[in-house]
Specification:
By secondary structure, the chain is mostly helical. It has a domain of about 50 residues. It is about 75% helix and about 0% strand. Helix 9 packs antiparallel against helix 10. The longest helix has 21 residues.
Length: about 190
């Protein structure tokens, strides 16, 4: 067997071992396995993606960003790399960078509900409640039975002083099984 065929085999073995270790929550072993997979094939974007996952799970967000950056450099048209890097930027409270990544995903995949939802939550973190409402509206058009979307949109309405819209969303969320908003803001809301 020549060296050209050995590297992909080593990559596959270490990559699979890393994935297995992730499923077992053995992140020390997973990181070592992904390091070896990267050594044998440094141009595999998925290996950087999964090592970033390990860094994120162990709260090493800066290293996770580095690995997401490398994965994006290798494969710039893979939306999940931007999505997960955006989530990591949120952990670092770098909301503008997160918004930029979520927006990139939405441009690549306009019906990406996860990116819409994550961007809406990020807008809420920034106090940009109308932008959050706009994203929740788009998300709800894709997933109308997701109770949390109504809860968070209702909270955004509440902070804008739109209590009747908040109440409407609290009722809708409650019908879908989430009574949290209805309980939190019950005294402050005026029904429609």
């Amino acid at each position: 067997m020549n060296t050209k065929t050995m590297a992909p085999i080593a990559l596959y073995d270490w990559y699979e071992k890393g994935l297995y270790a992730c499923r077992s929550n053995n992140f020390i072993y997973a990181e070592n396995a992904f390091n070896k997979a990267i050594e044998s094939s440094p141009q595999n974007a998925n290996t950087y993606y999964w090592r970033a996952f390990v860094h994120k799970r162990t709260n090493n967000f800066e290293k996770a960003i580095e690995d997401y950056n490398r994965a994006i450099e290798i494969s710039p048209h893979t939306s999940r790399f931007y999505l997960k890097r955006g989530n990591t930027y949120c952990k670092l409270k770098q909301y503008q960078l997160a918004i930029k990544d979520f927006t990139k995903v939405i441009r690549m995949e306009p019906a990406n509900a996860e990116a819409l939802f994550d961007r809406a939550i990020t807008y809420m973190q920034m106090g940009e409640y109308q932008l959050a409402v706009d994203d929740y509206d788009s998300f709800i058009s894709l997933k109308p039975d997701y109770a949390d979307a109504y809860t968070y949109r209702g909270i955004s309405y509440y902070y804008q002083g739109k209590h009747s819209l908040c109440y409407r969303d609290a009722l809708r969320a409650s019908k879908l099984g989430n009574d949290e908003l209805l309980e939190i803001f019950k005294e402050d809301m005026t029904p429609l």
